[in-house]
UniProtKB/TrEMBL annotation:
Gene3D superfamilies in the record: P-loop containing nucleotide triphosphate hydrolases
Species for this entry: Paenibacillus filicis
UniProt xrefs under PANTHER family: CELLULOSE BIOSYNTHESIS PROTEIN BCSQ-RELATED, SEPTUM SITE-DETERMINING PROTEIN MIND HOMOLOG, CHLOROPLASTIC-RELATED
GTP-binding as UniProt keyword: no
The protein, known as: MinD/ParA family protein
Record keywords: ATP-binding, Nucleotide-binding
Length: 291
């Protein structure tokens, strides 16, 4: 599987270079377990990227627990479900949140995605491929844990941010999902975010626990993007249904996420390791779903 996936990535990258297409960078954001603040991180990270001048779209791919729209207090009129039923185009299902942030609600759509026929999968890919070049980043907020759907999103995107916390169970589960994906494809690139840390020292110690074990047992380097401070402002923002980057921009959580975003942009992965546009992601995704 690894060799075939690498051949496909090389082919897609070569075709994109020949066509001179502008690529949209695909990043999956996942966690080993629920309750670590993954979706909240995704939402506020997207806003932090937009504050730096980038256009971002969130694709809520959390099967059964899609809640990006809830975190913003927005009722989505259309979701992926309507696209898969061919009732709406991909442009129709793009919703707009605060500060013009674009997002696609998942709803029950991803349950249907797993059961699509080959023809329907090709239609889905054709529609979503139109987003290439529309934004700079598409962030896929995946489900937590080791579901087969989450694994396929990670394998297709090739670039994954794993969100964990200092809790021992969160650390163990984060390592488990990294180990599982790495066993399936060595070319997936992981980076780590430690959420809800009390201070820099706790964040560093948590990241080191995962990175040291990954290096020892898989010879895998996992860079850490940064840490987000544990802050009561985050839960207050959730209750208000307003992202904490907007509700409490001077909070320690917002400031630490701003620093994290700066580090993320300053330490970009080499171009050859990034996903080769929306088309590349979709080709891999459709191929994995057809298996």
């Amino acid at each position: 599987m690894t060799d075939q996936a690498q051949e496909l990535r090389n082919l897609i990258k070569h075709q994109g270079a020949l066509q001179g297409e502008k690529s949209t960078r695909i990043i999956t954001i996942t966690s080993g377990k629920g309750g670590v603040g993954k979706s909240n991180f995704t939402l506020n990270f997207a806003l932090a990227l937009q504050n730096k001048g980038f256009k971002v779209l969130i694709f809520d791919a959390d099967i059964g627990l899609a809640n990006i729209d809830v975190l913003m207090g927005i009722t989505s009129k259309y979701s992926l479900y309507h696209l898969l039923k061919r009732e709406r185009t991909v442009w129709d299902i793009i919703n707009t949140g605060p500060q013009g942030l674009q997002f696609i609600a998942g709803g029950s759509g991803f349950n249907d995605l797993i059961r699509l026929s080959e023809e329907q999968l090709d239609y889905f890919a054709d529609q979503v491929n139109q987003l290439n070049g529309h934004v700079d980043f598409i962030l896929f907020d995946t489900g937590a844990g080791l579901s087969k759907e989450t694994l396929k999103f990670i394998l297709a995107a090739q670039e994954t941010i794993v969100v964990t916390t200092p809790e021992p169970t969160s650390i163990t589960d984060a390592y488990a999902i990294i180990k599982m994906v790495h066993s399936m494809d060595h070319n997936v690139n992981f980076r780590l975010v430690v959420n809800r840390v009390l201070d820099w020292k706790e964040g560093r110690q948590t990241a080191d626990k995962i990175s040291m074990v990954a290096k020892q047992f898989m010879n895998l380097d996992i860079p850490t993007i940064g840490y987000v401070w544990d802050d009561a402002a985050v839960s207050r923002a959730v209750r208000k249904q307003v992202p904490f980057m907007l509700a409490f921009p001077e909070s320690s959580a917002a400031k630490s996420l701003g620093h994290l975003t700066n580090d993320f942009l300053a330490n970009q992965m080499p171009a050859e390791t990034q996903s080769a546009s929306v088309k590349g992601f979709l080709n891999r995704m459709v191929r994995l779903l057809k298996q």
